[in-house]
Amino acid sequence: MTPETKPEHGAQPSHHADLGEKGARIQGMFDKLAPRYDLMNRVMTMGQDQRWRRFVVARAELAEGGRVLDLASGTGDIALEFKRRLPEATVIAGDFSLGMMRHGITRPHAGQLHWIACDAMRLPFADNSFGAVTFGYLLRNVASIPTALAEVYRVLEPGGKVVCLDTTPPPPGILRPFIRTYLNHGLPLLGRLLSADASAYAYLSSSTQSFETAEDLADLFSGAGFQSVAFRHFMFRTVAIHWARKPS
Ligand SMILES: C[S@@+](CC[C@H](N)C(=O)[O-])C[C@H]1O[C@@H](n2cnc3c(N)ncnc32)[C@H](O)[C@@H]1O
């Protein structure tokens, strides 16, 4: 698909009413945030975010010529990194925010991706379709993590890899008050200054603090049937990347 074309709709409708209350709220928030999303990401993570995305792509262990779904792809950062590293791969960038995808498809090389509008809770793909499924900052936003993981499991080929990047609640220890202050005050202030949307960054803060710990999230992956579940923390344990395999 070329950058001039519009994102394709998946088989599932993306109308607000079909997404449930939380899904519709999140979709609207990202539609609004889209023009400033990439800038905010670089600033908030002090430029570390692209390093984490490279780690996600490496952990996916996709074969050259393989097929990957980058779910909650947003403006396509992880999907573009797949294409950069594996030019022969078929890379699908799926998201339910048309605003984020419309912004993403104007980026250099974005025409080499397949942009699909889809809801992670009901994926419009056949069983066993992908060698890898990745997602950055999805699970904090869904109404049910087990439902999203069941869908990812279904569309992965046997032996396929899943890789998940997300924030984690502030870890216990000496840094906790500093991290909390940043989440409660620094992030909403940055949001107000850079994106004129403090509420979206207040949501990032509250959803991070109430999210699963990396250990509990690993248990949810195991509970969904994945094997060899592992994770690594980044940036003072405020971010975690999980990876696992669907049994062969
Ligand atoms: C914080 S952005 C992350 C974008 C990208 N993965 C990255 O690393 O920058 C979260 C994305 O998840 C998408 N999202 C949230 N819930 C979703 C769902 N149920 N189905 C599809 N996309 C969803 C949002 O629209 C948004 O684009």
From TrEMBL:
Keywords: Menaquinone biosynthesis, Methyltransferase, S-adenosyl-L-methionine, Transferase
Keyword Transferase applies: yes
Signal peptide: none
One Pfam family of this chain: Ubie_methyltran
Gene3D superfamilies: Vaccinia Virus protein VP39 (3.40.50.150)
GO biological process entries: menaquinone biosynthetic process; methylation
Record's protein name: Demethylmenaquinone methyltransferase
Record organism: Sulfidibacter corallicola
Gene that encodes it: ubiE
